[in-house]
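Sharing a chain and its predicted structure for anyone who wants a worked example. Both blocks are below, sequence first, tokens second.
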Amino acid sequence: MTESNQSPLLRRHYDVVILGAGMAGLTLARQLLLQTDRRILMLDRRSQLPSAAQKVGESTVQLGGYYLSKVLQLEEHLLTDHWMKYNLRFHWPTHGSSNTSIEDYSQTYIRKFSNVASYQVDRNRLEAELLKLNQADDRFTLVSPTRRLEVKLTEGAVEPHRVRFAIGRGKGGRMRGVAADWVVDCSGRRRFLARQLGLDRELAIDHGSSFLWVDGLLNIEQLTEQSATESRLRRDRHRLGHLPTWLSTNHFVGQGFWLWLIPLRGATSIGLTYDKAEIAHREVSSPEKLVEWICERFPLFARDLPQRKIRHFGSYLSYSYDCERTLSADRWAMSGEAGRFSDPLYSPGADLIALHNTLIADAIATRDPGELQGKVNGFEPLLRALFEAYIPSFTTSYNALGDPETFVLKYTWELAIYFAFYVFPFINDLLTEGRFGLAFLNRFSQLGPLNHNIQRWLSDFYNWKKAAGRVGSEKPVLVDLLELGPLSKAEKTFYQVGIGVDEGKKILGDQLTNLKELSRFMVAYICAAVIGNAGLLTNAAFVTGIDPANFEFDPVEIRRRWRQCASRQARYSWSFDPWVLEMFRHQSPFAVGAPQTNIAAGGGA
């Protein structure tokens, strides 16, 4: 931490003024310093940067991890001062167990390390490193603490904006003023520009969160009644592997809520995110209440968590919001939580920063007003589409977190989209290419109706299973998600690098076809579960009659259609093994019926 009571000699004019010295602002400054010749003034109202308090939001996934390590050239720092992340992992208690040991829980995960690395980051350490690197460049000036901030934006691309502020902690002091070609708001939840310009938009997400940090590493594999030898020699290691599961972002989940565990150097971040229709804030409004709630819902934590020293605690009554616009040809922009934020499930925060910063940096590097207008006309709809695609996952099928079978379908679908339509274009620098952006939005828009209907199917399937008493399992079920063929196919785009616009458009087209097949499979799988007959999965008459974007979840109608198709002998051939999730039937007394087909026949035979 550094005390930053600076009153530097200010220039009259800066290329970019960045409001806020948090992660969004510091990463944008770093990107601009690496990729452009722009001079930057950063303003922050805090006197200590980073702040002394621990910061939530430590988990990155592939896009954000790539941005930090490769684009911003922080790989050595991330590997030295933070942890390389072992993917996301989800856990459910089982019905026939006390759930006092980790081996009592069902799990879904990706067993191998990702080819695109992600990280578990201590936000304060990361921001301190970014600040140090930025201050080593004489084109970067930091002023903090600042007060009485005023921003007067001009229209068009000729006259500079005016930014005025006072320096220091006291109420007095004269105002300083600078001109700026660009103003970028990275002020976080203060949301300076969104509020000044009246651009706030509400989101239909009513979720809250409570979180804390404890000393030391909470290693979930040690939350067990087994001896160290028994744990090391578990027969299901052939499914789990030998890599340290504590390196994952581990989620313990239930209907409409999820608990995270994130390892940091010398500490563990633990937090609960929940639909307020399921959990009231008062139940988890203090560190003591949160610990008690965790140990009651997931008894294995009672072995360890109550004895840990708590460093910090925080909570949000609500955290989701939208913004009418985050990038303008009038040379202002917003990044990070100053603009939009949906939900922390799947750790999208650093991804959204990376996407906004990359398009903002490209816009700032564009001198010609006409070219800038053309870029912004493409960039803003792209940023909105990428953000809005997350929303149905949080508003429609959040309940599906409560069942491992339903969630495996949900996460496979969402992860396949993420790998192909978020990570692949980003690691190939394609999102700033105008010709690619148009083709991307064309293909991405075709996923919209599919995604909305699939999310409804997942929610309805979960509710149907719950009403029938079929949620969960009596014995632990272990699922490596990459065994599902469509997700494995999407993950292979990580290895396709140096791709140009035309080839990138073809790959996206192939991945769209892959996702359409996956959506058809998901509907067919759920229908087979409803009627209790896995033979439906290869019944060509039934499967070809599925329109995944419009087919309604109606058990009566599903059974009627099956009666019409059951006697037809033509078989449907999938491009992947459709029996990969049969463990849910064989290992659960809550299953929906044994398959009426030859499982040994394999993938669509």
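Comments welcome. The domain at 1-56+122-199+321-395 is CATH 3.50.50.60 (FAD/NAD(P)-binding domain).
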